[in-house]
Amino acid sequence: MVKSKSAYSTPSKLGKLDTHIFVIWVDNEAGVLARVVGLFSGRGYNIESLAVAEVDHKKNLSRVTIVTTGTPQVIEQITLQLKKLVPVHKVANFKKEDKKVIFKEMALLKIAGNQGKIKKALNACKKYNPVILDETKKSAVIQITALRREIDSVTKNLKPLGLVSTSRTGAVAMTRGAEIFN
Amino acid sequence: MGKLYSGAEIVFKSLEDQKVEFIFGYPGGAVLPIYDELKNHPSIKHILVRHEQGAGHAAEGYARSSGKPGVVLVTSGPGATNVVTALTDAYMDSVPLVCISGQVPTHLIGTDAFQECDTTGITRPCTKHNWLVKDINDLPRIMHEAFEVATTGRPGPVLVDIPKDVQFAKAKYFKPKKEKKLNGKVQNKFNQKEIDQLIDLMSKASKPVFYTGGGVINSGPKASELLRELVSLTGFPITSTLQGLGAYPGDDNQFLGMLGMHGTYEANNAMHDCDLLINIGARFDDRITGKIDEFSPKSKKVHIDIDPSSINKIIKVDLSIVGDVAEVISATSKTLKKKNLNIEKSNKQKISKWWQQIQKWRTKQSLNFINSNTIIKPQHAVQRLYELTKDQDTYITTEVGQHQMWAAQHYKFNKPNRWMTSGGLGTMGYGLPAAVGVQVAHPKKLVIDIAGEASILMTMQEISTAIQYNLPIKIFILNNQYMGMVRQWQELLHEKNYSESYSEALPDFVKLAEAYGCVGIRAKSPNELDGKIEEMINIDKPVIFDCHVDQDENCFPMIPSGKPHNQMLLGPKDQEENKITGKGKALV
User: Fold this and answer.
1) For chain A (length 182 residues), average pLDDT per consecutive 10?
2) 8 A C-beta contact, residue B25 and residue B46
3) Burial per residue of B135-161, b for 16 or more beta-carbon CB atoms within 10 angstroms, e otherwise
């Protein structure tokens, strides 16, 4: 065996990685997003997508939704570390596969091409609540809401149909039924 | 309408209301209004350091030896960046610090103004929380909240960045609220069921061990008393981390010594072979666990900690109790007594076997070294220092390296808050300024910084602070002319390629001491050591003691990297014996 020259131990085997969605309620104050994001980058956690906006103006609360992957231990650490941040009020986290939770992303897709192409493009989007936000003879801006992988596949299919620009949000999440995150 | 106060006045009024007696700082352009206000507040004494890092470490020494938060005052830009090392150090070792920094006026923020830096941005990852005060009306609330965050839960540093115009602006002041909830950040929610589970595990265990850490110290002197009671009630062996030393008497028979990379043979083997491991206020640091996969493989593990994020972070545990250590121990002892479960008696047979095993490990005498008549062995120097100072209430700080480990191994602590060392961050240059802070908190006590010649040069300038305030700290340098720990690793792991670890061009420490206006003492041979140590103790001035020690000495025992606890590398004596039997070679 080769002798280790490191003052640190060698890494042990990584566990199974799961995708989780974190919903974090924070005070809407200067630097709060940097604290949340800095915690992820500083501790080597990964951010797949991020969505944040104020949800309660009176209470000055913002809701951050972060999609991340990690081993069960890492996911637990992220939860506990987030809870330690002073402006963080509440942290919820659930698996991507969780059936009790709705999970959506929005995308704006700009198609440049003739009417035929635009029509085909619209057709390709029809399962994802397409809304035409802007239309000219040679272009259209289509808004869709869907899951991440659905948007991935739509954009792939739209490439030959004149997709010239894509703008996507991070995922947002909401529980089904009357219950709310706790 | 209430009276209006300037931002600078509000800073001092809140410091007064928080019962702050000392601040460690260094003035500069962006904090001048606060320094101007200092004269009006005689109950607060300012200690002028020589470098802002020194202010931070001095405040750490003050905080750790007194149990009160340390307060630091620095200017913007370089003042703030210089204190970052100390903030990070305090963050890693859970030391409560409140750092107040000046900032350029609000309208200049973001313009790359003179001595401007993004202080809150830079210190965000090394503080529990920080604030940039943009509105004077927020200042009283933020000041009080800063103390609250720093001192509650798992303690740590915070920083309040105050732009110069806010220091001049005026607002109303209000006193801190007596009871304030910090949106659930303070965790003390354990229940009796968890205590009962712990006691159940304790009564079933036949090879139990307590593994205690800095959390016991941070929980206050009461926690140490309660720990002693619990340990004697159970009859279990106890080992401690570097930061936990002093919580349990170092010379007690139930104490196995420090564990970890340079811990004792008996402590590490007990950790490896135990069937119940009770972690109280420690965090399974990588210097403690060694190889994670083979860490204490046969044991049920219990973790008592105030910080929920410490639990299951590195080692999965079977029972976790989140709460203040003192309260958890107290609840445990109470329940033990109430149930009249004298574990020591009921478990005596099982545990006595365990103790026999521990005695066997003890016969290895893993801290032994081969002493010399001609050259001072560093371990011998620490032992003599201990013997000659143990009769008085002595406070020890250290720098980082071999000397730090020898101090931890050979100096026995009987009380909490007597041992200040940089463990998590491992900051060379910590010990001298920390000693300044300790001496400020305890002016009549003997304060010794056990140092190395390389570390001490990193913050040497603070000896000037000690002179200015008549702080008779003793700097005891184990001078081996090497960055000893670096040299040791190079010897063991890098084929003796001593790359850049020799301390070239060292100053004459005795002359240096004289230049600063303190006393220099040099010891070169073992027969003069005792006399010179006594001389040092009796001088009521700062002393730099240049103790020339064996250059080749290594710090043993040690767990080589990537090895579990039961594969320790023992000292030269044992290695020699093992050579004959051919056993120990595999370990090297």
Assistant:
1) 66 83 95 96 94 95 96 94 96 92 95 94 95 95 95 95 96 91 65
2) yes
3) ebeebbebbbbbbbbbbbbbbbbbbbb
Residue B557, preceding bond cis, omega within 30 degrees?
yes
Beta strands across the sheet bearing B446-452: B419-420, B394-398, B446-452, B474-479, B543-548, B519-523
Of the pLDDT bands very low, low, confident and very high (cuts 50, 70, 90), residue B180 is low
- Average predicted confidence (pLDDT) for chain B: 93
Catalytic residue among B9, B37, B52, B553: B52
Give pLDDT tens digits for B429-478: 999 999 999 999 999 999 999 999 999 999 999 999 999 999 999 999 99
Closest of B391, B437, B388, B445 to residue B414, by C-alpha? B391
CB distance from A35 to chain B under 8 Å?
Answer: yes
Residue B153's nearest CA partner among A83, A90, A76 is A83
Across the interface, whether the CB atoms of B316 and A73 are under 8 A apart is answered yes
Contact B213, B277 (CB under 8 A): no
Q: What does the pLDDT average to over B378-388? A: 98
Residue of A nearest to B124 (CA): A35
Q: Which two tokens stand for residue B113?
A: 């103004």
Hey, what are B116's tokens? 């401007």
DSSP B388-434: HHTTS-EEEEE-SSHHHHHHHHHS---STTSEE---SS--TT-HHHH
- Which one-letter amino acid corresponds to residue B249? P
Judge whether A7 is closer than 8 Å to chain B, CB to CB.
yes
Location of structure tokens 């997508």: A49
Task: Say if CB B205 and CB B237 are below 8 A apart.
Answer: no
Per-residue confidence band for B349, with pLDDT thresholds at 50, 70 and 90? confident
Residue with tokens 């030959």: A160
Nearest partner of B56 among B84, B94, B93, B20, judged by Cα? B84
Tokens, residue B61: 């020494």
**Beta-ladder partners of B502:** B482
Residues of A in Cβ contact (< 8 Å) with B129: 85-86
Query: What is the least distance, in Å, from the CA of A171 to any CA of chain B?
Result: 26
Give the span between the Cα atoms of B268 and B533, in whole angstroms.
Answer: 33
Longest dimension (CA), chain B: 87
pLDDT in tens, B537-571: 999 999 999 999 999 999 999 998 778 898 898 98
User: Which H or E run includes B468?
Assistant: helix B463-468
- What residues in A contact B120, CB-CB < 8 Å? 31
CB-based contact B56:B97 (threshold 8 Å)? yes
In chain B, residues with a C-beta closer than 8 Å to the C-beta of A80 are 308-309, 311
| Average pLDDT, integer, range B335-345 | 73
* pLDDT given at position A3: 57
* Catalytic option among B164, B207, B301, B377: B164
* Alpha carbons B131 and B146: distance in angstroms, whole number: 8
ipTM: 0.90
Q: Please enumerate in sequence order all residues whose Cβ is within 8 A of that of B493, keeping only pairs 6 or more positions apart, or say none.
A: A3, A4, A5, B561
Q: Among partner residues B128, B309, B316, which is closest to A80 by beta-carbon distance?
A: B309
User: What per-residue confidence (pLDDT) applies to A4?
Assistant: 63
**B300-334 burial string, b = 16+ CB within 10 Å, else e?**
bbbbbbbbbbbbbbbbebebbbbbbbbbbbbbbbe
What amino acid occupies position B327?
Answer: E
For A83-150, give the DSSP string.
HHSTTEEEEEEEETT-TTEEEEEEEEEEEES-HHHHHHHHHHTGGG--EEEEE-SSEEEEEEEE-HHH
Q: Tally DSSP H helices, then E strands, for chain B.
A: 25, 20
